[in-house]
């Protein structure tokens, strides 16, 4: 069992390795689209198995890009909605009830009602990819208030630091 623990420890990596790619992506999207976006990253030290991190990298990137490019409004649209001019995307990894939860939330316009209720192809594909990693995806969206996605992974695939 000691050998297994040593092997597992060598496979564990902080999720911050993936999270570190997002500030530049968000900054570039904000500049191109004329948006003001604050990216709030929490839980960089939470560790996951290397294979899980590799499998999460692309889905997380897609969600963050979509939140920045499609979820958050321009400053003029936000002002018209009575919101702060700067939109916020929160990216957080945490331990919860024996599992690791990775949450991506924005204070944007939310998903279109049809997409949120029917689980459109983009969300179905995301659910499938997270399922292959042994996890689940939960989506909450409120029109005009924002969207939150939680990726939940069994603790067996991760480890507290």
Q: Give the DSSP E fraction (strand runs of 2 or more residues).
A: 25-35%
The count of helical stretches stands at 7
Query: In percent, how helical is the residue content?
Result: 40-55%
> What number is the mean pLDDT?
89
Which class do the helix and strand fractions yield?
alpha+beta
Strand/helix succession: HEHHEEHHEEHHEEE
Pick out the low-confidence regions.
Answer: 157-161
The biggest sheet, with number of strands, parallel, antiparallel or mixed sense and barrel status, is: 5 strands, mixed
Q: Which of globular, elongated, flat, extended, rod-shaped describes the shape?
A: elongated
Structure, described:
There is one protein chain. By secondary structure, this protein is an alpha+beta fold. The protein contains seven helices and eight strands, in the order αβααββααββααβββ. The strands form two sheets. The protein has a five-stranded mixed beta sheet. The chain has a three-stranded antiparallel beta sheet with strand order 1-3-8. It is elongated and about 60 Å long. The C terminus is likely disordered.
């Amino acid at each position: 069992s000691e050998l297994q623990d040593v092997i597992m420890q060598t496979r564990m990596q902080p999720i911050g390795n993936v999270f570190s790619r997002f500030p530049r992506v968000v900054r570039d999207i904000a500049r191109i689209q004329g948006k003001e976006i604050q990216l709030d990253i929490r839980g960089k030290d939470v560790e996951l198995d290397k294979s899980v991190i590799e499998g999460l990298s692309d889905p997380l990137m897609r969600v963050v890009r979509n939140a920045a490019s499609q979820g958050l409004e321009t400053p003029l649209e936000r002002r018209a909605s009575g919101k702060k001019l700067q939109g916020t995307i929160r990216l957080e990894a945490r331990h919860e009830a024996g599992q690791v939860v990775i949450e991506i939330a924005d204070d944007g316009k939310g998903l279109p009602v049809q997409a949120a209720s029917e689980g459109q192809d983009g969300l179905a594909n995301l659910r499938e990819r997270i399922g292959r990693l042994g996890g689940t995806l939960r989506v909450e969206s409120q029109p005009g208030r924002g969207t939150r996605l939680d990726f939940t992974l069994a603790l067996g695939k991760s480890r507290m630091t």
